[in-house]
Amino acid sequence: MHSQCWMFLIMIIYINANEENEPIILHIGALFDHENPLINHGQKDLHAAEMAVKEINTRSHELFNGRYILKLVSNNSKCDPVYAIDAFFHAIFRGHQLLFLIGTSCSSETKAVVEVADHYKLILFSHSTSFISQVNQTYSTLVRLSISDENYNDARVAFIQANNWSRVAIIHQDSIEHSLMMAKLAKRLNESNIEVILTQSASTANLTSALETLQERKARIVFVNFDIPSRAIFFCEVYRTFSKQLRERYVWILTGSDYHLWNFSINICTEKEIIDAAHSHIIVDSSYEIKSSSINPKMTSQQLEEQVQSNDHLDRQTLHVYDAVWVIALLIQRSMERNISIEEFTYERADIRDQWLGLLEEIYFIGVSGPVSFRNRHRRAETLISQFRTNSTGQYIKTIAEYSRSIGLKMNCSTCRQLIWPSSIPVDRQRTEIHRLVLNIIEIALITTSCILGLALAIFFLTFNIIYRHQRYIKLSSPKLNNVMVLGAIHIHISILLFAFDEWFLVHHLFERACMLRIFLFSGGFSLLFGSMFLKTLRVHCIFTSRDRPILQSKLLQDHHLLLVCLYLYIIDLIFAIFWQIFDPNSVQFTYETTKGVNMDVIVLNEIYYCDSRYRHKIISFIYLYKSLFLVLGGYLAAKTRHVHVPALNDSKFIVWSIYIVVLTSLFTVIVMISMKNLRIYVAICLVVVLMTSSILCLIFLPKVIRLKNPDRGSHDVVSKDLVVDVSRTRRLVVKTSYFESYRYAQLQNRELKAELIRVRLYFS
Fold it and tell me: Which of 1, 346, 370, 722 is the most exposed place for a label (fewest CB within 10 A)?
């Protein structure tokens, strides 16, 4: 009996010892997305987490002294906040006490779950690589295994500044997460005095229009933020939208070196075309801090790929899942070292949660995704900047710079290589070169020579007219008015000659005055040239139509009255020019026309300068109308006197020819201005105007030169029957022209003698 009691006591002690040696199961909650079409690696995430738990439990004695084992409580969140919350509450109320949570892939459900998990004092280890706006600052229970995109902004800014770029654009996937992510980047760039000329969101359906907008805004340095499945589509559209020469001038800056995960099964582009478009793009990624560690997972990323049975490279967030489980295991180990009672944790124990968050800073190990350590619940990492390159053997990535907040951007690190561009170094904008269009030496010489020849011809005719002014044939043609005509032609030639000195006027800030001077000289010269011609014809008209008073009493027969009329016309032009300059002054205006650049980085703008004022076009139109009426009046007088065949007296046929020349010249000028869009317009117009003016002078003066050279040549002129002339005034004119000329000459001599007699009487009185 006594021996049986001892046996029973020994059995009880043995059973209690076994119960004490039985490891305690710690439950870890996990939320994975198994049904998201864009994120199709939920099963891989779950498999990786199970493998991590298996390895940890195998090493339980090494990690926990055999006291604990981990058990994964997994649920499908379907990348939907509603399903994620439902799965979370299902694990809370229908399952065992959870110590930690792992998940999720989608940012929307992560934000929803962390809000609830914070209420239950659970730490959520997120393996998501997508952007989660503001949750790190708002919720203290979120620990991210991936690097926040915001952490790359300083490195991005440093890289832009190191390449002397100051103008960038941003194109991102059309989602709230990507918009918020790029808004932070844009703010950081603006704070660094880097101009963000465009922030463009785009879906896969409107990528072409978004890229065309980039091209229109002339953006060259572009930050690109698309999910991994969409990156191949993006570069496919780049290939289709931009020419090869233009693609080489763009710098695409992406985040993450995940090109091996791109979906190249796109019908509209081949893999070679996508890789060709992606050639030389910049990659911003993480370089994790490496320190010594006593305990590390024995699994490598290559072994994990084999265990998960993945034919491709594993996505980084699958690697993060594996490392997240190890973070929890090492956190439990540190808790045991600090005598934190893990079994006493409940959903109300915020103190234990805070102790765990404090111990998180001490965690460090080499995981499958790289070195793992934390600072302020963020994974510690430095930034690595690389370049995607291709050659005949395939694609590869070369490090070009490292960035850390302590030393900044370092481009001469041991693993860094020099940037290689397809052609020259890309620029952040197309450089604009302004070339001022001025007359070249040949055009200036052409205008100057033509004007000098025209002036020489006008001076020759003026000298001829002055020397032979007492000749009867010249005297009958009103030599004084002929002199005025030549002076008008000289005005026009000088106004054209001023075009050759435009650049000099512009440099010395006299271009506005030169513009008005040209207008006045041309307008006044036109009035003198055609005004004197028309007044001569008006006098002929009056001679043969006057009935009420004697011819010699008409003021229009006296040269000084006609000269006074010419002076009035000239003064009108002068006053008009003065008032124009006072009330609507001309100013120098510049217009620019684009020409073909030297290369894709240079836009050549031809700068064309000209005079302009507020009402210039209306005023010029008024001057044209005024001068046109002037020509119409001259044409009318020429038509009325066309049958007066007295060459020395009547210039009507020359007036008609002059009007023809002016009209044809104007039509030619309009055609030239329409067809020619450069400075050759002005050269052509200048030459045409000089030729027109010289032609009119030749029409008027060459017959006189020829007549005086051959004095025997004459014509038997008669008076037209179409003019209404009193019989008593024309009886002598119808016999012979020579009698009329004698009569006319006698009249002129009689008038001059009377004038001389009056002057003598006044002198002696």
Answer: 1
Taking residues 423-436, report their average pLDDT. Answer: 80
The CA distances from residue 630 to 428, 569, 626, in Å, are: 59, 11, 6
CA dist., res. 311 & res. 695, Å (int):
91
d(CA 515, CA 499): 9
Question: Rounded to an integer, what distance in angstroms lies between the CA atom of residue 271 and that of residue 127?
Answer: 30
Q: Are strands 98-102 and 123-126 parallel, antiparallel or unpaired?
A: parallel
CA distance 399 to 419: 9
Two tokens at 352? 């234990």
Q: What is the pTM of this model?
A: 0.58
Q: How far is CA 593 from each of CA 213, 436, 597, 633, rounded to the nearest angstrom?
A: 22, 11, 12, 42
In the block, tokens 């320190």 appear at 291
Cβ count within 10 A of residue 193: 9
Collect all residues with Cβ–Cβ distance below 8 Å to 476 and sequence separation of at least 6. 646, 648, 649, 741, 744, 745, 748
Q: Is the dihedral of CA 432, 436, 437, 441 positive or negative?
A: negative
> What are the structure tokens assigned to 323, written together?
């490392």
Residue listed under structure tokens 């890229």: 211
Ordered strands of the 364-367 beta sheet: 364-367, 370-375, 378-379
The model's confidence at residue 258, banded by pLDDT at 50, 70 and 90, is: confident
Report cis status (omega within 30 of 0) of the bond before 104. yes
> CA–CA separation, 105 vs 316, rounded Å?
11
Give the lowest-confidence range in 59-63, 149-153, 423-427, 644-648: 644-648
Q: What is the dihedral of CA 438, 442, 447, 451, to 10 degrees?
A: 140
Angstrom distances, CA of residue 674 to CA of 656, 663, 677, 684? 27, 17, 7, 12
pLDDT in tens, 383-409: 889 999 888 788 888 889 988 877 888
Interior angle at CA 184, CA 180 and CA 186, nearest 5: 110
Q: Which of 541, 536, 591 is nearest to 558 (CA)?
A: 536
